[in-house]
Design brief:
Blueprint lengths: L15 H13 L9 H21 L6 E4 L2 H10 L9 E5 L4 H4 L2 H6 L3 E5 L8 H7 L4 E7 L11 H15 L4 E5 L11 H4 L3 E5 L10 E5 L25 H16 L1 H19 L5 E3 L11 E6 L4 H10 L29 H5 L1 E5 L6 H15 L1
Parallel strand pairs: 2-3, 2-4, 4-5, 5-6
Antiparallel strand pairs: 1-7, 6-7, 8-9, 9-10
Helix pairs in contact: 1-9, 2-9, 10-13
Length: about 375
């Protein structure tokens, strides 16, 4: 049976293993981990074991594991923590960021903060522009690790080096937040090597359940949440912990890490098939630049004269699931989904961009089948 679902960057199908774990835990550890009775204590003990597992899988301290509803909430916790600052300052954000970050701009500007975007030619942060925009009053720098439409990998090591230089120059700490939602399960990295102050990720990007994710917070961080709620999750995020989802997240996380090498090898092979097929299509281009690095499971394509909405709609009619940009951007009424600081690509190509994203469950025939449908539409 062919696999015509090519929107894995939006969300993945929950694996049978993760679903099984979710069901088992829901039936076994049904009590509130904050309750003092026996069942509550059992749930609390199980939560501690799951936190230890997440800590071990990601190679981070136990106290750095904060469970949230997903990357969007994790991003929000970090950004809104700035509202406790007595002095307003500058927030430096890449032009590539997800709406869960970029849509905070108006909110912060109305409250006296500076919101400054960094250029991203060909979908990669311009580090020279970044260095110029980090000033003495900069409070935070935000960057994706992997872009959700282009699949471009950001130069995090170089970005961190620039931030450290600026910290030394201005004699104050600058919080560095990295959105890892599209990197997990697609790219080999470690939070320790990123050397960021905080990071976000979601389980549903790696065949885990929706509504569960992670906020990594470096030990000793002075981040203060806007709301503590019931004081769960080290006081960073209130609400009764979702044990079934946490367990399924850990299952999916373990699977993605264990099979990462073979998964990357498979999607790299599939990309070569796509690249070969696109060469035979008139007017269709892959939006990439040979100087940059990419994950090969997320690819942006464009036709020079056919709007992306037309291609996505016709492919949907043919049984193929793809996206015009990111799922969250699809909720926007903007006619141009990309920030004007994303340069390099011809404007008409950006306007017609559509995204296909797959995983290791796809086969060569699936890519060929999709490409045949695209070729039929664009010929």
């Amino acid at each position: 049976m062919s696999n015509n679902y090519f929107d894995n960057a939006s969300t993945t199908k929950m694996s049978e293993g993760a679903l099984k774990v979710y069901s088992e835990v829901a039936l076994t550890y049904y009590a509130n981990p904050s309750s003092s009775h026996k069942e509550g204590r059992l749930a609390h003990s199980y939560l501690n074991k799951q936190r230890e597992k997440t800590s071990s899988l990601l190679g981070i301290p136990l106290e750095s594991v904060i469970y949230t509803s997903g990357a969007s909430e994790s991003n929000s916790i970090i950004l809104t923590s700035l509202l406790w600052k007595r002095r307003k300052g500058r927030i430096v954000v890449s032009a590539l960021e997800h709406p869960s970050i970029s849509q905070f701009r108006v909110f912060f500007e109305e409250r006296g903060f500076e919101w400054i975007y960094v250029k991203a030619p060909f979908g990669v942060i311009d580090t020279e522009d970044l260095a110029n925009k980090i000033t003495h009053n900069t409070l935070m720098v935000i960057s994706m690790l992997t872009h959700n439409v282009f699949g471009s990998i950001q130069p995090i090591e170089e970005i961190k080096k620039i931030i450290k230089q600026k910290e030394s120059e201005y004699s104050h700490h600058i919080h560095f937040h990295v959105d890892c939602a599209q990197a997990i399960g697609k790219l080999e990295f470690s939070l320790a090597q990123l050397d960021c102050d905080s990071a976000s990720m979601s389980a549903h990007k790696i065949e885990g359940p929706r509504g569960i994710g992670l906020l990594f917070l470096k030990q000793g961080s002075l981040v203060k949440p806007l709301s503590r709620g019931g004081n769960q999750e080290m006081g960073m995020r209130g609400g009764t912990e979702n044990l079934p989802a946490i367990s399924a997240f850990n299952y999916a996380l373990n699977e993605s890490i264990t099979h990462l090498d073979s998964s990357i090898k498979k999607v790299d092979q599939l990309y070569k098939v796509l690249e070969h097929e696109v060469k035979g299509m008139r007017g269709v281009e892959i939006l990439r630049n040979e100087k940059n690095n990419y994950v090969n499971s997320i690819v942006a394509l464009s036709h020079i004269s056919i709007p992306s909405e037309v291609i996505t709609r016709v492919l949907d009619d043919k049984g193929f699931s793809i996206s015009s940009t990111s799922a969250c951007s699809n909720n926007s009424h903007s006619s141009h989904p990309f920030h004007p600081f994303i340069t390099g690509f011809r404007p008409e190509l950006l306007k017609g961009a559509f995204r296909i994203s797959w995983n290791s469950h796809h086969e060569k025939e699936d890519i060929i089948h999709l490409c045949a449908a695209i070729k039929e539409i664009t010929s």
